[in-house]
Amino acid sequence: MTAAAGARGGLVTVMGMAFAARLPLVMVGLAMALLLRDAGFSYGVVGLVAAAYILAMGLVSPLVGRAADRLGSAPVLVVSGTVSSAALAVMAVAAADLGAAGDVALAALAGAAAPPVSPVLRASVPVLATPEQLTTVYAMEAALQEVLWVAGPLLVVLAVAAVSPQGAMLTVAAGLAVLTWAFAGVIHRRSEPGRGRGDGWALRSRALRRLVVAYGLLGVCFGATELSLIAVLDEHGHRSLSGAVMAAWAGGSLVAGLVVARRARRAPHVRLPGLLAGFALLTLPLVVLSVNPVLLSVGLFVQGLFVAPSLGTVYELVPDVVAEELLTEAFAWVASFLYAGAAAGNAAAGIAASTVGASSGFLVALAAVCGALPASLAVRGAVRAREPADATA
């Protein structure tokens, strides 16, 4: 076996194991909601528990990523996966007895300890892939997220139908522990970078600060689009088609990640503003296309063609704007801003849909992408400013 073939094999193994390890993570939200409803809690309580999980994850994940940079990815994955899994398992068997406050506390613990599978994977890609492969690999990583978000809820529904909401949550908890441990083993054997102790915080990088702002605004767009498509379909009596329309959106992203990104030739800091400009142009028609589910599906599929390439370009930029020994923390910051943006987009689109009209949430999505465009131009300027310094270092 050649060195190149061995590297490719390592990359495929790590990405495949990371995909499996993230499946339980994307299943948690729906499994938690169904479990709490089955235990007799109101939607208000369900929302509080879900918010505690997401907020804790967003706030603590950069610290967990920083620990992975300093202590090594494998031990942090094992410990965090074990703690998060245990918290979810306790909730599964005692949700009703714990009450709302107890479930909120457990959700916060599970979210705070959520294993940093995605940041570790993305930080490992430069170790496993050649510079020429980075664009394709990161775009494929972004596309695989779409598969996760479609497959995860489907698996939860199947588990609930086969067993019960409690059984589904126990399955998620067990899968989270076992698959995270397996991913930790793969990382330890094949791609643990061993970068050592970083100096300072990743957000000291001006370019990274600008990049996470752009990424957070993309999160606003995603959150607003998701809620808006549900709102318009509900308004026109097509609520049952929400899953199919979302699948069309994810399908466009998947196609782009697997096919279109292979044709990228320009540097990522040059490429990102153009991708966001195209993203904005294809978001505007969604307001008009929302009157018909077929037209909306087509519009979202075409807009989705810009999702995976945009996300992959952001991932590709991160190693260019922070020190190697801070990569996992940097990717965790990127994820945190996405979570925050998606939550804000959901909220803003909900307010717009209630006060103006169901389709007005798409205008929130458009405004967010337009806001991300100048942020991406600022990233381009910051990266160009770094290049002379790097060249003389």
Summarize this entry quickly:
By secondary structure, the chain is mainly alpha-helical. The protein has 14 helices and no strands.
What is the count of β-strands?
Answer: 0
Helix content: over 70%
Strand content: under 5%
- The class by helix and strand makeup works out as mainly alpha
Shape descriptor: globular
Description:
This protein folds into two domains: 1-195, Up-down Bundle (Growth Hormone, Chain: A), CATH 1.20.1250; 198-393, Growth Hormone, Chain: A (Up-down Bundle), CATH 1.20.1250.20. 83% of the residues lie in helices and 0% in strands. The protein has helices spanning 3-38, 43-71, 73-112, 117-128, 134-162, 165-191, 206-235, 242-258, 268-283, 286-289, 293-304, 307-321, 327-355, 361-392. The two termini are 37 Å apart. It is built from 14 helices and no strands.
